[in-house]
Write a structure and sequence with these properties.
Layout lengths: L1 E7 L10 E11 L2 E6 L2 E8 L4 E10 L10
């Protein structure tokens, strides 16, 4: 787990990206990472040209199915 400054989609102001703190939890695939920001787990990608992760906490949210034994 790595806390870092990332560009976070929900903080975007118009066309301007805004930095915020997120935690990169693990790599899921080719340039696909599991991130957590504000208690929400979502997808992130790494942009090597700017050296930062872009965290998509708007469209890339990972929904976990409800626990079937929790009834």
């Amino acid at each position: 787990m790595e806390k870092c400054e990332c560009y976070i989609h929900s903080l975007k102001q118009g066309e301007k990206h805004v930095l915020g703190e997120a935690t990169i939890l693990k790599r899921l695939g080719d340039n696909d990472y599991l991130a957590e920001v504000g208690g929400v787990k979502c997808h992130a990608i790494f942009n090597p040209f700017v050296g930062r992760y872009f965290v998509d906490d708007v469209y890339g949210i990972i929904h976990t199915p409800p626990d079937r034994d929790a009834r």
